Amino acid sequence: MFSMFCRWNPLRLIIQGLLLFSLLRLNYASTDPDVEGEALVDLLGALNDSNHQITDWNYHLVSPCFSWSHITCRNGNVISLSLGSVGFSGSLSPSITKLKYLASLDLQNNKIAGVLPDYLANMTHLQNLNLANNNFNGPIPVAWGRLVGLKHLDLGVLSKDDDQKSVMDLSDNNLTGEVPAQFFSIPMFNFSGTGLPCGFRLDKPCVSTSPRRASAKNSKFGVVASTASCGGFILLSIGAFFAYRCFYMHKLKDSMFVDVADEDECKLCFGQIRRFSLREIQLATANFNEANIIGQGGFGKVYKGILSDASKVAVKRLTDYNSPGGKAAFLGEVELISVAVHRNLLRLIGFCITTSERILVYPFMQNLSVAHHLRDLKPGERSLEWATRKRIAFGAAHGLEYLHEHCNPKIIHRDLKAANILLDDDFEAVLGDFGLAKLVDTKVTHITTQVRGTMGHIAPEYLSTGKSSEKTDVFGYGITLLELVTGQRAIDFSRLEEEEDVLLLDHIKKLQRENRLEDVVDKNLKSYNEKEVENIVQVALLCTQSSPEDRPTMAEVVNLLHGEGLADRWAEWMQLEEPNLGNPGGDEVWSLRRTHTVPVPIAIVGEAEGTELLLPITPILIPGEEAVQPLSAAAELLPHPTVVVELALPLHGDAADAELDKLKKEEEEKKRREAELKKLEEDEARRLEELIQKNVQEILNSEETRLEIERRVEEGRKKLFDAVDVQLAKEKEAALTAARQKEEQARKEREELDRMLEENRRRVEEAQQREALELQRKEEERYRELELIQRQKEEAARRKKLDQGEERT
C-alpha cells in the first residue's frame, strides 16, 4: 500500500494536496478553553445554583473538559450541557453564546425565569434544546426561526409510529405572543401549557401528531452521506500524508539529513500530559511572582508553584518562543517528554499554550539540584556523601544512555550539567531541562545555527563547528563527573590569580599529571574510596577527550563505571596524552589561556554557574585573520545583559598548524556539501514545481478526465442512493414488524385488564350483598332484643302492681 502512494498520479496529487490543506485549516478551529470556562462560570452564576448542586465548576480551574460535571466535550470544545432538574432559580446569561460549538442544551425541570433570549439564535451548532418545565415568559423570539436544525431524542415520549429525532419542547412555561411559523415545520414540537395561541385559537396544533416520513429519509440520507464523505476525507488525507512522506524520504535517501535546531515540529503525542489554563498557572505562581523564581536558563525562568490540589510544581515559562527555536523548542520538548519515560528523566506533568505564552509544568523536586548541594548549601545543610555522589553519577549515565540508545529517534540533551540534574526524595538523579534537546535520526548530524549551552560544559567540536551529537552529551557528562568529585564549577576565573587554568577540565588534567589525587577531591567530603574516585576521574577524562571519535558512547560509559574495560581505555588515553606531558595544555582546541591566541567572540549570560553560552554565528578559527564578528556587534545581538570575553585557541608548533589545516579542510568540505545540498534542493523544488504545473494544466485541459470524474461521481451517488433505499426499506420493515408486535401486545394487555376489572367488579358486588344481609340480620336481632326488654319491663310493672294490691289487702 505504501508503494501505491508513492506513484505520481497527477489527479491524486492535486486532490490530496487540497484535502491536506483543508485538514490543516480545521486543526486551528478549536476554541480557547479559558473562554469556554469563563462562559460556564458566568452562566452558573446567572442561573443561581442556590442548592449548591454543582460544586466542581471551579473558577480557578478554567478547563471545563478536564473534570467538570454535567459537561460533554469533543476536541477540547464543550458540545453538551445536561443541567436538567438541578434546581436553578435564576435566568440565562448571554455568556452562553461563547460556547460556539454547543450542540445540546438541557435545562428542563428547573425554575429559570425571564424572557426567552433572542441571542440563542446565534448558536448555529445547537441541535438539542430542552427548556420544558421552567418559568419563562414573554414571546418566542422571531430570530429563533433560524434554529430549524434543533434535534432531540427522547424515547420516553415518542409515539410508536414516530421515529423522528427533531423535537422542540417548550411546554409548561408562561409564554405569550405568537409561535413563529418556522417552528411548525419541525417534525416534533410541543407548545402545550405555554399560553401560546395554538390549537382551536390558531389553525395550528399545540403538539405535533404524525411526523413526515420524507424528513426521515432525508435525515438518514444526510447521515449516511456525511459519514461517507468524512470517511473518504480521512482516507484521502492519510493518502496525502503518505505521498508526501514517500517523496520526502526519497529525496533524502542518498543525501545527508540536516536537522536544524530552529525547525518547528508540530506533530504532538501528548499521552497523559495535562493541558493547563493560563489562569491555573497564574494562580499557582502568584501571577509569576519574582519571589517564586527558582531558576533561569536560556529559554526562560522557572517558578515554584502550588496547584489547587496543593501539589507543588515547577513552572518553566518560555520567553523566546517567537524567536527562531523558541516555539520549536516548546513543541519538541512536549513531544519528547511524552514518549521518553525513565526513572532518571524528569517527568512532564503538563503544559500551557496561548497566543502569548508557552509554559511547561514539571513536578517540584524538593531536594533541588546537584549543583545546589555541591556549592549552594545553606548553614546546617549536609554535603553530599560519596556514596550519594556515586549513585548520582550512575543514575545520570543511565538516563543519558536511555536518551541516546533507547529513544527512536535519538534525543540529544546538549546542556548536561550539575544544575540540570535534579534529586528526588531518595536522592536519585533525575535529568531535567529538555528545552534544549532536539530529535536526531540515527544517521543524522545535528547542525544548529546557534550554539547553546553552559560555559565549560560545551564540547570543542560543538563550539567550533556548531555540530552536536551524542558525543557532545558525553563531553558534558564527563565535566559533570568532575563537578561531582571536586564540588567546583566547570569554569572559575578566580583561578587566574594562581594559575592559567580557568577550566575545571584543564585543572584536573594538571593535577592528574602531577599525581595529586588528594587535591582533586571536594574538601567537604569527609570520607571516600580512593580507588572509586580514581576510576570516576578516569571515566571523566575519557569522556572529555578533544576528538569526539575517541570518546566512549554512554552505553560504554555505563560499563566503564562498573570497571569493565576501564584499564585498557585508560592505557590508550595515557598514550595519547604522553606527547603533551612536556607541554602543559597540549594542543587542546577548547581552552582559555593568556598566550598567542585567535580571538573569537563569546557571550556569557548571567553568573558563572548556570551561564548560558550563546554564539550568534558559528566561528571559524583561522590564524592571522580577524574574528568572525566584532565583540561589540556580537554583544548587540544578545537579548540579555552580557559580559563579553575572548575564547582563545592556543597555537603550538606543527601540531597547531596541522589542527588548523584540518579545521580549514573541514570548513571547506562543509561549505561544499552545503552548496551541493542547496543545489539539489533547488533542482528538486524546480522539478517538482514544473511537474505540478504540468499536471495541473493536463487536468484542466483534459475533457476526458472531467467526464471520467463525473461518471465516477454519478456511479458513487447511485450506489449511495441504492444503499440508502435498501437500508430504509429494511428499517421500515423492521419498524412495521415492531409496531405490529407492540399492537398485539397492547391488545392482549387490554383484554387481560378488562378480565381483571370484570372479576373485581363481581367480587365487589358479592361483598356488598353479603354485607347488606349481615346488616339486616343484625337489625332483626336488635329488634327482637328490644321487644324482649319491653316485655320484661311490662311484666315487672304488672308484678309490682300485684304486690302493691296484696299489701293493701
Automatic annotation (TrEMBL):
The chain crosses the membrane at residues 221-244. Gene3D superfamilies: Phosphorylase Kinase, domain 1, Ribonuclease Inhibitor, Transferase(Phosphotransferase) domain 1. Residues 288-574 form the Protein kinase domain. It is found in: Membrane. Residues 653-705 form a coiled coil. It is a single-pass type I membrane protein. InterPro entries: ARGLU1, Kinase-like_dom_sf, Leu-rich_rpt, LRR_dom_sf, LRR_N_plant-typ, LRR_Rcpt-Like_S/T_Kinase, Prot_kinase_dom, Protein_kinase_ATP_BS. It holds the Pfam family PK_Tyr_Ser-Thr. This is non-specific serine/threonine protein kinase.
